[in-house]
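Intended use. Records like the one below are meant for learning the mapping from a protein sequence to its folded structure. Do not use them to infer anything beyond what is encoded.
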Amino acid sequence: MQNVLLRAAAFACLGVATLVGLVGQAHAAANCIKGDRKPPYTIGWANIYSVPTWMKETQGTIEKEVDALKAKGLVSKLVVTDAQGDANTQIQQIQSMIDANVDAIILIAGSSSAPARVLAAACAKGIAIMNFDSLVDTDQVTAKINTDSAQWGAQAATWLIDAMGGKGNIIVLNGPAGVSVSDDRRKGATPVLAAHPDIKILTETNTAYNVAPAQEAVTNLLFANQQIDGILSLGGALSAGAINALDKEGRPMVPITGENARQFLEMWKSKNLKAWATMQPNWLGAFATYAAVQALQGKDVPAFVKIPLPVISNANVGEYLAKAGDFPADGYIYSPYSDGLFDQLLAQK
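Structure written out for the chain above:
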């Protein structure tokens, strides 16, 4: 009888231990999360560079979200670094965050491969790692958050072809060569264009995501190409530069794609253009911050969160411009966001 009781007690203890283990596993539902970090949390924002307006706006959404989380007692501090475009500097700054034992790291990667080792070290330490926009190759992060850049390019090409009636000459404007977002947008457009042989690509160019260099590049293309029927622009500032170039050279406006750059949207409306745009929402930074805190609290956060691409058309461009005063003149008018939207995105399967 004594042996039976001892066995029963042992099984009971094993059951409790198993239950505790399962609870611990449930609490650490997301990758890298161990469940031993308690609020208020310290958030690290490992910024690759801070100069472009898009990045400044993105950091603004992070700071706003941190303020909201501070008010709830969930966050105590935001640590911000700026690698000034240098991937190696960013790696060193991430290591400093690890040494300081931050609870979460928010990351736009300066390199897809270089940060792998330092991110693995952060993950092993139980730090939540939220990677958005420019993604890393490693899976040693809590979550990757992004729109589908290939879909971006495919949708832009499809709209332009339809707007041109399926035939004509186009030029293609890409972002800087080697930037993953730009390359992926162009890859997405490729099969769509290939399926329409009556659309002729006269030429294409790579340029920085700024109006002035884009205008200069398009001006050169205009001199070399007299008949242009459409412009496949894979960036908003590129579109604004293209319109400036057409205007200055007295060339007719043609169907054009782009994104949510305020200058482009204002030109679109004032010149009554036939245009289409989407966006890489600046609030991806806020969402990454919110998701990091959710993960640290034991909530299930998917390894990849796909953000739907909002579409700006002639039907709703006015709605975006109605909010223009809330954004910088050289900034991006992004769509509204809320914790409710963030919860819906995290609930995606």
